[in-house]
Amino acid sequence: MAVRLRRRCADEEIVAEVMQETYLAVWRAAGAFVGTAAGGTAVGWLWTIAARRLVDAFRRRAHHAEPPPAAAPQPMAPAAEEEALAATVGGDVGDALRRLAPELRQVLQAMVLDGLSVRETAVLLGLPEGTVKTRARRARIAMREALA
C-alpha cells in the first residue's frame, strides 16, 4: 500500500502520516469490515481508507502551504494491490483495463475501483477536475470499444 501511495504523492512525510492514520482507522473499524459477503476485499477496503486519508492530508496541507509535489510516474514492479486487482479483474475486462493508457487507467482506478469522487480524484492525482472528467470519459469509451 505504501508503494501505491508513493506513486500518488512524492512527500514521504505525508505518506508516512497517511499510513499511520490508515492503520489506526483499520484498527478502530475492523469490526465494520464484512468481507467478501458484501462483495469487497480486504485489500480494496484498506486502499479505500488510505486513498481517502491521502485526500484529507492534501486538503489539510493546502490550507497551510502549497500542495505537495505530485509523484512522477515511474516504472516499478507492480504493487501487491495491483497484483490482487489483476487477479480479481480478469478476462476481457482485465485485458481492456491493462491496455488503457496509464493516465486513463489512473483516473478510472481512482474513480471506479477506489470509489473516489471527481474532486477527490483531482486532488489525489494533482489534476484539474475538468481533466479528470475528460480522462474518465475517454477511459469509459476505450473500455466500451475494447469490450464490444
UniProtKB/TrEMBL annotation:
Please verify whether the record's keywords include Glycoprotein: no
What ranges does the record list as Pro residues composition bias?
67-76
Tell me which residues make up the RNA polymerase sigma-70 region domain: 5-62
Q: Could you tell me which residue ranges the RNA polymerase sigma factor 70 region 4 type domain spans?
A: 93-142
Named from the GO MF annotations, one term is: sigma factor activity
The UniProt keyword set, sorted, is: Membrane, Sigma factor, Transcription, Transcription regulation, Transmembrane, Transmembrane helix
Q: Know the name of this protein? A: Uncharacterized protein
